[in-house]
């Protein structure tokens, strides 16, 4: 869903680092530069040193955008408008 605010193991705040992490990886792919950021380099730059915090960021799957596409109220409104 959305990135947790704190690491489950140590309690360090990691929620504010997700957008920057994705931006570092995305910018590197679009630029195609030789000095590319790996996952390790991006996490080092963000200050994620502990393996528990790295796990939280590395294994996160961002599903919120996909879930927002499935709004059941929109379908019921369309059905009511269609049926009369």
Automatic annotation (TrEMBL):
GO terms for cellular component: RNA polymerase I complex; RNA polymerase II, core complex; RNA polymerase III complex. InterPro entries: RNA_pol_su_RPB10, RNA_pol_suN_Zn-BS, RPABC5/Rpb10. GO terms for molecular function: DNA binding; DNA-directed RNA polymerase activity; zinc ion binding. Coiled coil: none annotated. One of its GO terms (biological process) is transcription by RNA polymerase I. It comes from the Eukaryota. SUPFAM superfamilies: RNA polymerase subunit RPB10. It is found in: Nucleus. Pfam families: RNA_pol_N (PF01194). Keywords: DNA-directed RNA polymerase, Metal-binding, Transcription, Zinc. The keyword Transcription applies. Its main location: nucleus. Belongs to the archaeal Rpo10/eukaryotic RPB10 RNA polymerase subunit family. PANTHER family: DNA-DIRECTED RNA POLYMERASES I, II, AND III SUBUNIT RPABC5 (PTHR23431:SF3), DNA-DIRECTED RNA POLYMERASES I, II, AND III SUBUNIT RPABC5 FAMILY MEMBER (PTHR23431). NCBIfam families: PRK04016.1. This is DNA-directed RNA polymerases I, II, and III subunit RPABC5. It comes from Rhizoctonia solani.
